[in-house]
Design goal:
It comes from Curtobacterium salicis. By secondary structure, the protein is mainly α. It has helices at residues 5-8, 68-79, 92-111, 122-135, 140-151, 188-224, 233-250, 268-275, 281-297, 327-346, 350-354, 398-410, 439-457, 479-491, 503-515, 522-543, 553-567, 577-587, 633-651, 657-680; strands at 41-43, 57-59, 312-313, 316-317, 361-365, 372-380, 390-396, 496-497, 501-502, 591-593, 598-600, 629-630. It is flat.
């Protein structure tokens, strides 16, 4: 544990009850209305730089009353940057974690009938460690939190009298070392249909949903902008009369209720909205006329919007008439689908996605206008202490650009941030970036997106369900998208992603755009995945290396034996990316997997163009000519399949003579090469 006390110095101060506790964290003009020292609850969210983060607060009424002044002094110190002994301020999330630990400690002291920290003895420290152990909460973080009353002793009126860390028992069990990224990768059986539905929502269904959202918004806006209409009875009456006349002329049924208890009764609130009058006015001034009209025209089974969906999926209408109450959930589903496409096809972190703004996409074109590069400009927060984050950009694919464009249309006019919670009929402060959709809300919305898609799939033949092969549910989370993309780029760079986007192409775009130029850190994540992928492959390849053929067969066996000796008794490669990278730096066998070939790299024999002196350029590989190439039985089978395909081309009389001759020559050379290779092994 770090000894903060040695750095703390003597800065004891008296805290004014009226002092704003966030005075050192936010600008003076933003302090109005924020928490003061005398308050029982300190709301920390104004000092949180991540707009989608959880709203943190410190509730001091939970602290035992005798220790409440000491707790307030401590956390006032933690929030004050000028008195920070650690060199940089605590994050608000860290302060909230410390509050939990401090609360545990002070509640324990209260159970021991203590009323002052100065009364604590070494015996109490030992009992507290045992207390945490009995609760299953003996962690370094809780011990560090309690020790803050010693680390800040020169700044507190009632500090701890002795350093608990000096006690040999003030220890938690050592935490397990950090290994491979534990975030789960989304299985392909989940990912493919998820991308399928998200892409169709953005590309094909968004027009219907956005049209419904506009009608819904106009109904609310028209009603809200006439707050004083009830005082102008004549105007209100004429608007209601005109609406009822429209229904009588058209013969349309009146809007109704979906609840069974109310079915058959007109929805007066819907009529109020449609007429643009305050709620409750229609039933007061035209109840008799509405009842008579309902008897003639009938009452609908729900309140439906006038805009009817026109899009289809696989030739089937995706939806019937859309009800007024459906619109908010449909819009959230569309927003979540856009999130899926942006998060997965860009590799952005959740915080980076949530802070994108209107106009964030910029497109550069060549002189012909056919070659385009889309840059998404945003903000990154990890790895920097800037309260507003730092500017960054990502090279993204067209599907991300389309998703952003849909979000821009979905957001309310004039809204800057594209991931505000969608509030229909309620207001929120647009200047407050703390009202962005939180990570937990997005996780909930991802589950709802899956439920919506599976519900629609039941009525659209051929559309996929988002479920595992065994029918069990997979719970998506925001962290899984970046992890999954890194896995695919590292391990399947030539594979085709759902939505017809090639990962290899996507990888080139990303590394060209932000792995080298931006601060996203995604290159490190992919490098870690690539190290693990190579380690896994080397471990598997070593088991079957005796079955390879080629001029470098003896060399590959020698190198793998040498690597095995370096592993010693462990018998397997490290699973930690950092440890694996260090191991390969010292004991790299320089064996690389290519397309139906394995390269036992020796730069003096290599025919490829080498960008690095110690690694091959597998894209320029000439496996049939290079002395570094060896082939597994599976590789040889793949080459023989290719030879058979070329033979079919050569036999196709519809082909041009030159093409047939070239195919026949290539096929015969492949067969001869591998016949000779296998014959010599």
């Amino acid at each position: 544990m770090t000894n903060l006390a040695a750095e703390a110095g003597s800065h004891r101060r008296t805290w004014s009850p009226r002092r704003h506790v966030l005075a050192a964290r936010i600008d003076a003009e933003r302090l109005t209305g924020t928490s003061r020292f005398e308050d029982d609850t300190w709301v920390l969210s104004p000092a949180e730089r991540l707009g989608h983060a959880h709203v943190y607060s410190l509730k001091f009424l939970r602290v035992p009353a005798p220790f409440r002044p000491a707790a307030k002094e401590l956390f006032a110190q933690l929030l004050d940057d000028d008195l920070m002994p650690r060199g940089k301020p605590y994050a608000t999330s860290s302060i909230r974690v410390h509050f939990t630990g401090v609360l545990l400690f002070l509640q324990f002291l209260t159970s021991k009938r203590l009323t002052r920290l100065s009364e604590v003895t070494p015996r109490h420290y030992g009992e507290y460690v045992g207390y945490l152990g009995a609760l299953g909460k003996l962690r370094d973080s809780h011990l560090r939190s309690a020790r803050l009353f010693w680390a800040y002793r020169d700044r507190l009126t009632d500090p701890l009298p002795t350093d608990p860390e000096a006690m040999v028992f003030w220890r938690a069990a050592p935490e397990a070392p950090r290994g491979e990224n534990k975030t789960q990768r989304i299985p392909e059986e989940i990912l493919n249909p998820l991308i399928w539905w998200s892409t169709r929502l953005v590309d094909e269904l968004s027009g219907d949903i956005l049209g419904s959202a506009e009608e819904h918004r106009n109904l609310i806006t028209e009603q809200a902008r006439r707050p004083g209409i009830s005082r102008r009875r004549g105007d209100a009456s004429s608007r209601v009369t005109a609406l009822l006349a429209h229904y009588r002329a058209s013969g349309e049924p009146l809007p109704g209720h979906y609840e069974k208890a109310w079915q058959g009764r007109p929805n007066y609130r819907a009529l109020d909205r449609e007429a643009g009058v305050p709620t409750g006015l229609t039933i007061r001034i035209a109840d008799y006329q509405v009842r008579a009209l309902a008897a003639d025209n009938g009452v609908d089974s729900d309140t439906f919007l006038r805009s009817n969906p026109s899009a289809t999926l696989l030739g089937v209408p995706w939806s019937g008439r859309i009800t007024y109450r459906e619109v908010p959930s449909l819009c959230r589903t569309l927003q979540t689908a856009a999130y899926v496409l942006i998060a997965f096809f860009s590799g952005m972190r959740d915080s980076e996605v949530k802070h994108i703004k209107r106009g964030c996409i910029r497109t550069d074109s060549d002189s012909t206008g056919r070659l385009q590069v889309h840059r998404l400009h945003g903000t990154t927060f990890k790895g920097n202490d800037n309260p507003h984050g730092e500017a960054a950009h990502w090279i993204v694919s067209p599907v991300v650009k389309r998703a952003v464009e849909v979000l821009e249309r979905l957001a309310e006019p004039g809204e800057e941030y594209l991931f505000r919670p969608l509030r229909f009929g309620t207001s929120h402060d647009r200047s407050d970036t703390k009202s962005l959709v939180s990570g937990s809300e997005t996780n909930t919305n991802l589950d709802k997106l899956v439920d919506w898609a599976n519900g629609r799939a039941a009525g659209i033949p051929g559309s996929p369900k988002i479920a595992r092969a065994d029918g069990t549910r997979w719970h998506l989370s925001t962290r899984q998208f970046r992890r999954t993309l890194a896995w695919f780029i590292a391990r399947r760079p030539g594979g085709v992603a759902a939505g017809a986007l090639q990962y290899k192409h996507l990888s080139l775009q990303m590394f060209r755009g932000y792995a080298g130029e931006s601060r996203s850190g995604f290159a490190d994540e992919v490098a870690g995945e690539q190290a693990l992928a190579r380690g896994e492959w080397l471990g598997e390849f070593a088991q079957d290396a005796h079955s390879v053929v080629g001029r470098a067969k003896d060399e590959v066996v020698r190198r793998l034996d040498s690597m095995g000796a370096a592993l010693g008794f462990a018998g397997q490669l490290p699973e930690n990316p950092a440890q694996l990278t260090r191991f390969l730096k010292r004991h790299d066998p320089y064996i690389y997997r290519g397309a139906a070939v394995t390269c036992v790299f020796d730069r003096t024999k290599a025919l490829c163009m080498r960008k690095e002196p110690s690694a091959p350029d597998l894209l320029s590989c000439e496996p049939l000519r290079c002395a570094n190439a060896v082939f597994t039985p599976e590789d040889i089978a793949a080459w023989r399949d290719r030879a058979s395909g070329l033979a079919e081309v050569a036999a196709d009389e519809a082909r041009a003579p030159r093409v047939r001759a070239s195919a026949a020559d290539h096929s015969s050379r492949l067969i001869a090469f591998f016949d000779a290779l296998e014959g010599s092994s």
